[in-house]
Design a protein that fits this description.
Blueprint: H1 2-13, H2 15-54, E1 57-64, E2 69-73, E3 79-84, E4 90-92, H3 98-106, E5 111-125, E6 130-138, H4 140-146, H5 149-152, E7 153-156, H6 158-163, E8 167-171, H7 172-178, E9 185-190, E10 193-203, H8 208-211, E11 214-218, H9 219-226, E12 234-239, H10 245-256, E13 258-262, H11 263-266, H12 268-306, H13 308-316, H14 321-355, E14 358-362, E15 366-369, H15 376-402, H16 406-413
Helix pairs in contact: 1-14, 2-12, 2-14, 2-15, 12-15, 13-16, 14-15
Length: about 425
C-alpha cells in the first residue's frame, strides 16, 4: 500500500502531463468503442436481415457425387480420410421430392422453421411501367416460421395475403418504382402466360437489393405461372443457433444428398467486407492509444530522471528494486484504470447519442438512423489494447528506476 500511496503522490505532483496522458487513454478507448459499435452495428443489422429473409441454411440441388469424393478406408472398414469436392459433383436442379425432405428436416431439434420455396423470374406490368422481378412462391404459414416476413410487412397484412390465392406481396422499392399500393391490381408477365394479381401487402427487409427485386406469391399460384407442377423447389431453414449453420449444413448435405449452403458461406463476401471495416477502423483508432502510450513513456522517463535522488533515498531506507519498480507500475495502473473507466463512459454516451441521430439511408441498407451494436466485447477489446500500450510504456521506465544505485547517486550529489 505504501508503494501505491507514493505512486499517487508522484501523479499529483505532475498534474498537467499526467492529465494529458490520461486524456489520450480516455479518447482512445472512447473512439475505439464508438467506431466498433458503428461498424459492427451495420454488420449485425445485415446478418439479422439476411437470417430473417433468406434463412440460416438453403437446401437446393440434389447431387450425384460420382467423381468428387476421395476416401481412404482402413482394414476395419472405417473411413480414415475423406475429401469432398463440390466442383466435381453432378447436380440435379432443385428438390424433386420436397415432401420427403420436409419431413426429414422436421426431425432435427436444431431447426426452428422450414419453408419450401419455388423460385422464378417475371415482369410486373402496371400498364404504364414495367419492372423485372424475382418470384418466391411460398406457403405463408411455413415461411412465417422460417423468416421474419410478417414483421417486415409495412403496409397491408399477412391475413389479406392468406385470404386471396391471387394476392402478391411486393418489396417496398418495387412498389415505389411502379407506384403501387395495397389493393392495386398488377399484371405478372412471363412463365406460362399472364396473371392478374392484387397487391395485398408491401414488405421492407432493409436490404435494398431484396426490396427492389423480390415478390411473394402463393405456392400453387407460382407453380402454375412458372409451369413447375412438381419438384424443382428449394428449402429455407431457420436455426435456433445460426452460428452453427456451417456444421449443420454439412450434416444435412451428407444425410439428404442435397446441396446445403449456410448463411456464412452464402454471404461470405459481405461478411469479409464488414470484417475488413472493423479491423481497419480498429487499427486506425488504436493509433490514438499508441500515441497515448508514447506520451506516458515520455512522462515517466522524464519522471525517473527528475526523481533519481528521491529513488536513491527510498533505496537507502530499505526499498527493494522491486518496490521502486512497483511505484511506477502503480502509476501506470492508476492512469490505465481511470482512462478505461472514463473512456468507456464516454464511449457508451457517444454510442447512445449516435443511435438516436436521425439519418435516412437508402442504398445498400435501408434505415432511418445509425445502427449500433451494444457489445461488451468492444469495451474489453479497447481495455486490452490500452493495457498493452500503457504496460509497455510504463514497464521500461519502471525497469530503469529499479536499477538506480543509491550509493552512486548520493556520492554524485555530495
Amino acid at each position: 500500500m505504501l508503494c501505491l500511496e507514493l505512486a499517487w503522490r508522484f501523479i499529483i505532483a505532475r498534474k498537467r502531463p499526467m492529465l494529458l496522458s490520461l486524456s489520450g487513454i480516455v479518447f482512445g478507448v472512447a473512439f475505439f468503442v464508438l467506431t466498433q459499435a458503428q461498424t459492427s452495428g451495420f454488420e449485425q443489422f445485415f446478418i439479422r436481415t439476411i437470417l430473417g429473409t433468406n434463412g440460416a441454411i438453403r437446401i437446393s440441388d440434389q447431387f450425384q457425387d460420382n467423381v468428387g469424393t476421395v476416401e481412404k478406408v482402413d482394414q476395419d472398414g472405417k473411413v480414415e480420410f475423406l475429401f469432398h469436392s463440390r466442383e466435381d459433383s453432378l447436380y440435379r436442379e432443385g428438390v424433386d421430392q420436397p415432401a420427403l425432405i420436409y419431413e426429414a428436416l422436421k426431425d432435427y431439434p436444431e431447426i426452428m422453421g422450414v419453408s419450401e420455396i419455388i423460385e422464378g423470374n417475371g415482369v410486373l406490368n402496371t400498364g404504364s411501367r414495367k419492372s423485372s422481378i424475382e418470384i418466391k412462391g411460398i406457403r405463408w404459414v411455413d415461411h412465417a416460421q422460417a423468416s421474419d416476413l410478417i414483421s417486415q410487412i409495412i403496409d397491408g397484412s399477412i391475413d389479406e395475403f392468406a385470404a386471396d390465392q391471387m394476392a402478391v406481396l411486393l418489396g417496398s422499392r418495387i412498389s415505389q418504382r411502379l407506384n403501387l399500393k395495397v389493393g392495386d391490381r398488377v399484371r405478372l408477365i412471363g412463365g406460362t402466360g399472364n396473371l392478374h394479381l392484387r397487391v395485398s401487402g408491401i414488405f421492407e427487409t432493409g436490404v435494398s437489393q431484396i426490396d427492389k427485386n423480390r415478390i411473394y406469391l402463393h405456392m400453387g399460384t407460382a407453380r402454375s405461372f412458372l409451369g413447375r407442377f412438381s419438384g424443382g423447389s428449394v428449402f429455407q431453414v431457420a436455426l435456433k443457433n445460426p452460428n452453427r449453420a456451417p456444421a449443420i449444413a454439412q450434416q444435412l448435405q451428407n444425410v439428404l444428398n442435397h446441396r446445403a449452403v449456410s448463411w456464412q458461406e452464402r454471404e461470405k463476401v459481405w461478411l469479409d467486407v464488414f470484417k475488413a471495416l472493423r479491423v481497419s477502423s480498429g487499427i486506425t483508432v488504436s493509433c490514438i492509444l499508441l500515441l497515448s502510450g508514447l506520451g506516458i513513456f515520455n512522462v515517466f522517463a522524464i519522471l525517473v530522471i527528475e526523481k533519481t535522488r528521491d529513488i536513491a533515498i527510498l533505496r537507502s531506507i530499505g526499498f527493494s528494486p522491486q518496490d521502486v519498480s512497483a511505484i511506477f507500475l502503480w502509476q501506470g495502473a492508476i492512469l490505465l484504470s481511470a482512462g478505461v473507466f472514463v473512456g468507456s463512459l464516454f464511449g457508451y454516451a457517444g454510442t447512445f447519442l449516435i443511435s438516436v441521430i436521425p439519418l435516412r439511408i437508402r442504398g445498400i441498407f435501408s434505415t432511418d438512423n445509425f445502427v449500433v451494436n451494444w457489445d461488451l466485447d468492444h469495451y474489453l477489446m479497447a481495455a486490452t489494447i490500452a493495457l498493452f500500450f500503457v504496460s509497455f510504456a510504463t514497464w521500461i521506465p519502471a525497469r530503469r528506476a529499479s536499477k538506480v544505485e543509491p550509493a552512486k547517486i548520493i556520492r554524485e550529489t555530495l
